[in-house]
Every structure is written in structure tokens, then in C-alpha cells.
Design brief:
Glutaredoxin; single chain; kinase; 8 helices; protein serine/threonine kinase activity; 5-stranded mixed sheet
Length: 287
């Protein structure tokens, strides 16, 4: 049997209990501090993530307000179009500018589509095709898939001139202004590498199912099709031109995309679904 001298005294037991309690309090305080720090770090990470998202959206939107006036790409015109004279060349234009303050006023009520500066080609000349498209438009993607190669063939044969007016009607539903950024990319390619315009355009519309592209992906796609236009895309060099094209199309009562004018006559796919037949007939009639 153990003697009383071997058992801790009451004072010793009390001191030991106080020490254990103190150790527990210290441990708990340390745990609370770690928890508080983790919560604060979590908040900081969340805030940084939101900031990064905002910065990403701003960057994709080519940060800042788009200027009202700006340069027109080579091959472009003051109506907001880009004209292809063959499958590898654009119209001989350069040094032009546009100003949205001179675009005009949209009609108060619905009006017949009336594209500015558009006319039928003279007898004996390649006929004029005027095409309004939006890179974020599913119907435009379908149109390009069906007709891009045929349009290229007509251009290569010298039977047509094709003017593309790349609008941004669908920016209202896009967090990154993809319609405007895609149209800017097309203008960049026309300006720097006209022979790449049709291949890039076809590739751009073909990826529609994958969703909106970031600027880096647009630049990569352009480069894959022979155009090194990364700086032009990131800088939004022709965003003012796109802004003008879009607003001019609304003023001219172009109701949707794709809209196709053959010799200045609006093609109605419901009344005449055979666009190839319509264009071939116009080519033959203009010989």
C-alpha cells in the first residue's frame, strides 16, 4: 500500500490542474487564431478571385470605352464593310476613318433594310454580294458552314465581289463582347493578311459550338490560318470601326444576321432557299 508521502498533495493537484487548464487555453487560443487566419485568407482569396474575374472581363473587352472614331482596316470602307475582290485579296483601300457621330439616326419605326453605299455591279463586272454576319450568331455559323467554300470559289473565279459587314448585335448577351472582339479580329486579319481572311473567317464560325473565345484563342486561330495579329486583337485596334459598322447596320434597318444582298437585292431564304442558284443566275445575267 502506497504511503501518503507518495501521493500528490491537494495543492500539487490544484497546481497541476491549473497548468493543464492553462495549456488547454493556450492551445485553444492558438487554434482560434489559426481558424481566424484561415477565414481571413479565404476572404482575401475570394476577393482576389473576383478582382481577377473583373480584370479578365475588362481585358477581354479591350479595356476602356471604345472611341467614337477610328481607323478602317485595309480593304474596308466608310460604310463599315470589308470587301474581298478575290479569295486572297481585298479592295485597294487604306487610310480611311469612321466616326459614329456621323452614322445617322435609326428610324423611329421599322423600315425596309437599306444598306448604305450599296449598289448592283455594272454590266460585265463581277456581281456584288453584301453579307451581314455576327461571329456569335448560330445561324451565321450554319450559313458559313454551308456557303463559305462556294463563296471562295466564286471569288477565285472572279464572278463576285463580297463585302462583309461584321456586326455586334449579340454583344448584349455576351459578358466579354465576343461579337465585337471577333469582328475586330476579322478586321485585323483583313488589314494584315488578306489571303487569310476567308480561312480565318471559316475557322472562326466553325468553332461556334465551343462558345466564346478569349483574345489569346482568337490570336492563335488567326495565326493557325496565316495571320499574326495578336497585338491588333489585344489592342482592339479596329473596335471603333466595328462600333460604327454595328450602329450603321441598325440605322440602315438590317434586322438580323445573316442578311445577304445579291446585287443590292435582299435574299429571302424562305421564298428562294437556293442561294447558289440565285447567285449563279445573277452572275449569268451580268455577263
Amino acid at each position: 500500500m502506497a504511503s501518503n508521502s507518495q501521493r500528490p498533495s491537494k495543492a500539487e493537484r490544484t497546481a497541476s490542474a491549473r497548468e493543464q487548464a492553462q495549456q488547454m487555453r493556450v492551445a485553444q487560443e492558438a487554434a482560434d487564431k489559426r481558424k481566424s487566419l484561415l477565414i481571413k485568407l479565404g476572404v482575401v482569396v475570394a476577393v482576389l478571385a473576383v478582382v481577377a474575374l473583373i480584370i479578365g472581363i475588362v481585358v477581354q473587352n479591350n479595356s476602356g470605352k471604345v472611341a467614337d472614331s477610328g481607323a478602317v482596316p485595309k480593304g474596308g470602307n466608310e460604310a463599315g464593310g470589308i470587301t474581298l475582290t478575290s479569295d486572297t485579296t481585298v479592295a485597294d483601300t487604306s487610310g480611311l476613318t469612321v466616326d459614329i457621330n456621323k452614322v445617322g439616326t435609326a428610324p423611329a419605326q421599322a423600315a425596309e433594310p437599306s444598306p448604305r453605299d450599296s449598289e448592283a455591279a455594272a454590266k460585265g463586272e463581277p456581281i456584288n454580294l453584301l453579307i451581314y454576319v455576327d461571329v456569335n450568331c448560330p445561324h451565321c455559323s450554319t450559313f458559313e458552314a454551308e456557303y463559305a467554300d462556294q463563296i471562295g470559289a466564286w471569288l477565285a473565279a472572279g464572278d463576285v465581289k463580297v463585302e462583309y459587314r461584321n456586326v455586334a448585335y449579340l454583344d448584349s448577351g455576351s459578358p466579354t463582347n465576343f461579337s465585337s472582339r471577333g469582328a475586330n479580329a476579322l478586321a485585323c486579319v483583313a488589314d494584315a493578311a488578306p489571303a487569310s481572311y476567308l480561312p480565318f473567317s471559316k475557322a472562326l464560325f466553325a468553332q461556334a459550338a465551343e462558345g466564346e473565345l478569349k483574345n489569346a484563342a482568337l490570336a492563335s486561330l488567326a495565326k493557325d490560318n496565316g495571320a499574326d495579329v495578336e497585338n491588333c486583337i489585344n489592342d482592339g485596334t479596329f473596335r471603333s470601326f466595328v462600333k460604327f459598322t454595328d450602329e450603321a447596320s441598325r440605322v440602315d434597318s438590317i434586322g438580323g444576321t445573316p442578311s445577304v444582298f445579291v446585287q443590292n437585292e435582299l435574299w429571302d431564304p424562305n421564298a428562294e432557299p437556293d442561294l447558289v442558284g440565285v447567285v449563279n443566275a445573277a452572275i449569268k445575267a451580268n455577263k
